[in-house]
Amino acid sequence: MRGRRGDSADFPRLSDSGQSCAFAKPTSRLMKPYTLNKSEAAGALSQYVAIEPHRRGLYAKVVCPTIGQREAPIISGEIIEAIDRLGGAKGNFVLDLSGVNQLTSMGLGMCIDVRNRVASAKLKPYLFGTNRSVLDLLRMMKIDKLFTVIHAPDDLGKLLG
Q: Is-contact 93 125, C-beta < 8 A?
């Protein structure tokens, strides 16, 4: 019966060659989660968001084109850590979505979560750089009402000082 499609005898097995599969047994090394602790903040860079403190607040630029299931919790966690490090300082928070082309439901939830954390930290939330499709989605879901949307780079400069 060799030669039939789907016959497992046609395909070599790792066990036949003496090799082992890396996923078959748990590895002893555990992956360390990304953190922006003060001891690691100087050299730690994120692949999804760039966060910069300014005199008048905090600026977070999302640098990935899609905010989906994988990116949303990472971005949200890093922004929340940066807000916590401010230590209750009042000011503005700018979420720059100029590099984002697509938001999934997880991305929308991230926007709401970040806005709620920003408001509880006594910061005023702003959105900057949204393209037409992202802004239309935010308007349709009424999330744009949670933020002050700014479009001009001059306005951004005035906010951050």
A: yes
